[in-house]
Amino acid sequence: MNSIIEAAVTKRTAPATAAGPLTLHLMQPQDRTRWDAFVRACPEATFFHLSGWQQVIEASFGIKTWFYFVEQDGQIQGVLPLAEIKSRLFGHSLGAMPFCVYGGPAATNEAARPLLDQAAHELAQQLGVGHLEYRGMRRFHPIDPNWHTKELYVTFRKEISGDDEENLNAIPRKQRAMVRKGIKLGLKGVVEDNVDRMFEAYAHSVHRLGTPVFPKKYFALLQKTFGDECEVRTILTEKDELVGSVLSFYWRDEVVPYYGGGMDIARNVAGNDFMYWNLMQAAAARGCRIFDFGRSKLGTGAYDFKKNWGFTAEHLPYEYKLYGATALPDNNPLNPKYQLFIKMWKKLPLPLANFMGPYIVRNLG
Questions:
Q1: What Cα–Cα distance (Å) separates residue 282 from each residue in 121, 161, 291?
Q2: Which residues are registered as beta bridge partners of 245?
Q3: Which of 56, 106, 248, 326 could form a disulfide with 45 if both were Cys (CB 3.0 to 4.6 A apart)?
Q4: Which residues cross the membrane (predicted)?
């Protein structure tokens, strides 16, 4: 037989090499590049699975993290970032991930999921937490009675096109009128290389709501860590007065406005309405085709605002596995036991609230 043909036949008929075992690992600094390459290629992974969140969360809040991955034959098959929150006031938990709207295991090999689950289970037991939490856009354990979910959060996601007029006309009439008001008043959006004005607008807004503020260094670290995928867009009047600002993430063909706020003037000039429209315009021009308005709690003003844009709410089925706790967590501003705290917080001078807020918010996740 011709040697070339013989080699081809041998190659075609030789048995495939058996795949190696699946092994569990903790991400090390040298693993970050391939971790992120996997996350970017994995269909069910999100921006919040990127390795940069480990540096941001640990440096901003002093919170301990564990970034697990499963490997086979040198290739990552699944990842699960976790972080611990330990607070006398708000409880002890292990979650994927605090300060992130989405989390939980992301895998391309179904056999990797049980290894990631087992790692989280063993770590939760070792730490003695009250509960373990996954933040998925779908249920990971729909028939497992050890995992619980509750109706609290929704997310708002909508397709957009590359045509501004088409996107504007897709906004319901009353909301569209507010956007046009901002346009008529000459509002403008600028992209900034720092978080100074963004933090000012954000801190002003959350203080008005009675919510503790995140530390300014957290926003600066987000911008530094994620580079072009993290944009700070500030809205100004024709006279360059600060109206509002929003920090957004760009992920694949999506834009995710994540932290934002407005000054008092924003109410008079439809500042928040214009801000999100201006962001939608910029994102569409950048090639984004999904506008992810992010997480909101049922029954809140943010929920109503997003619905007014014509977005449809999708349930976010966060999952909880109880360990030391006897009930599901309820650390949110709608909980009646926090109402007095919220009223008192609104009365604090803004500089004092900005000083104290970071010490409290790190325990909320």
A1: 42, 12, 11
A2: 234, 261
A3: 106
A4: none
Exposed, middle or buried: residue 295 (CB in 10 Å: 0-12, 13-18, 19+)?
buried
Kindly state the tokens that stand for 265: 């003037």
Give the count of beta carbons closer than 10 Å to the beta carbon of residue 209: 14
Check whether residue 110 and residue 233 sit in a common domain: no
Neighbours of 337 (CB within 10 A): 7
As a whole number of angstroms, the distance between CA 114 and CA 116 comes to 5
Domain at 34, CATH number: 3.40.630.30
d(CA 82, CA 62): 14
Based on the fold, state whether residues 189 and 218 are members of the same structural domain: yes
Q: The whole model's pTM is what?
A: 0.87
pLDDT in tens, 242-290: 999 999 999 999 999 999 999 999 999 999 999 999 999 999 999 999 9
Say whether pLDDT at 16 is over 80.
no
Given a contact cutoff of 8 angstroms between Cβ atoms, the answer to whether 358 and 213 are in contact is yes
- CA end-to-end span of the chain: 69
Q: How far apart are CA 54 and CA 356, in angstroms?
A: 24
Q: Decide if 101 contacts 71 (C-beta within 8 A).
A: no
Domain count for the chain: 2
In single-letter form, the type of residue at position 327 comes to: A
What is the C-alpha separation between 33 and 50, in angstroms, rounded? 10
